[in-house]
Amino acid sequence: MNETEQNFEELKRLLAFKRHEVPPPGYFSHFSGQVISRIRAGEAGGPQNFIERLQKAAPWLADFLQIFEARPGLIGGMATSLCLLLVLSVIFADRPDAASQNLLAVSETSAAAGGPVAAMAAMGSSSLLTAASDSSGIVASTNPVTSLQPTATLFGQAGASPLFQPAGFQPAGQ
Amino acid sequence: MIMSEPIATPDAATSAETLETDLVHQARRGDLKAYDELVQRYQQRIYATIYHMTANHEDANDLAQDSFIKAFQALKSFKGGSSFYTWLYRIAVNKTINFLKQRKHRQHFSLNDLDFQTENNPDLVALISHKTPLREVGLTELQKKLNEALLKLSEPHRMVVVLHDVQGQSHEEIAEIMDCNIGTVRSRLFYARQQLQGYLTEYAKPA
Fold it and tell me: How many CA atoms lie within 13 A of A163 on its CB side?
């Protein structure tokens, strides 16, 4: 070990040079005052910065974010892949849904093939809709709120509906 | 002014320890005057350690202040298992190493001036005027080369060299500060010196 120490003697003398590096004159006469005033200002118990709070609340997340800080390329790659994913999802969302297309095709072919149940169901539903439309002027629709409103014609309402009476104001005795 | 303190005699050390324990107790109760005294006692050593690690005065100033503030915040958790000085050093060392890991890709110097004793130091004068092949090299150039070489070391290796060869701490103290065993300190020191000798061949040749 002595031999090794002797080998490093020159280096140690060189490193001792670092002791001569000193901060600006008067630096230490203000240092403790600055620390104490920072403590007094409430920094000791006051709000911490975001990173410190995150480090306490979710250390795993803080560590994860530190990976990005150390490797900026990684965050770029991740952002690019997210953008790509977004573009692909927009493209695929514009295309018609293949599953619903298939279902529609199957129901149409079964009705056309003369399946008794399907044919009756198709007829029944269409006649019901027609009847409802004819009797009260109410257009059948899957939208219940708007469909209950009677359709207006040029000369008034088409057909008097038993459900609705015209409202008017007539003073008594006239 | 050299940034290292003279070694105290045993009697002086004992009374200083007693005083330090009292100051810590008072500071723990919120006495800022007592804490101010503790800060004044260790500010030079803490600042110097951080400065030699970062080679940047502004960073060292911020980190040293933050270390003292964090120590004040955590004073209630200080059990007294080690000396206040070791405990404070550990906070400063951890803070500095974390900081250096984060700023790995943006190192820049902000070196302090050399004191007036430098030019009268016979070792250094001999080193730059006789033993180096580059006789024209100035002290400032040597300072820069030395800091560059130190920054090439990994943080734990640099810390061991700074604490031992620059600050003059013992292996035992360093082991306690860095929370590792003495064997690790010795091996890190040896490896770090070897590395440095490689980086500074023109200045520090093996005997």
Answer: 8
